[in-house]
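PROTOCOL LOG
Step 1. Enter all chains and additional molecules of the complex.
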Amino acid sequence: AQKVTQAQTEISVVEKEDVTLDCVYETRDTTYYLFWYKQPPSGELVFLIRRNSFDEQNEISGRYSWNFQKSTSSFNFTITASQVVDSAVYFCALSEAERNAGNMLTFGGGTRLMVKP
Amino acid sequence: DGGITQSPKYLFRKEGQNVTLSCEQNLNHDAMYWYRQDPGQGLRLIYYSQIVNDFQKGDIAEGYSVSREKKESFPLTVTSAQKNPTAFYLCASSSRLAGVYNEQFFGPGTRLTVL
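Step 2. Run joint prediction.
Step 3. Record the structure below.
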């Protein structure tokens, strides 16, 4: 069965520090998609990135970067030079393409990031 | 502006009452989804719909019902059979291209409190 684990429930950093949010997943499919979403205090989930299982290249978008390693079933998210506006709950999610005609997402429990000034 | 709207933002219900949460999207997305989020937890899928007039149960469908009469609308009814309905409800939608679904986009959510 598919599963997503975010072992860090809360992380607190001081502004300008780098921070990495961990995500470990389990799936029996060979084709799957991984996602990161940000949930600010307003509650709405904001899409950050989608990755398919055949693309292991790391991705960088501004201060955000993602490290996908199939060998360890991990899809970690790093924020460089964190800012107070990065404070939010971050969710990692998995969608299995082969068994999942409806694109259902399995979410991790989320990591609450607090960036202090 | 394209997007997903949910109404109301806050909803209070007395025990034993049914209540319907609205979700509308103007993104022309094929698929729509309802999730429930409890405090400090991740999202759990209630129902989803890939096309009009068709929908499937998710992981926690008991006590909920949905309809999909129009492509842009996917209302969720929380019935009196739902034992613990107080939660944050999020609606999402996604497009489909060449048989592959794209990422889901979410509405602002409805916070339901049972008094």
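Step 4. Note key features.
The interface with chain A takes residues 31, 33, 40-45, 48, 50, 56, 58, 88, 90, 92, 94, 96, 100-109, 111 of chain B (CB under 8 Å).
The two ends of chain B are 36 Å apart (CA to CA).
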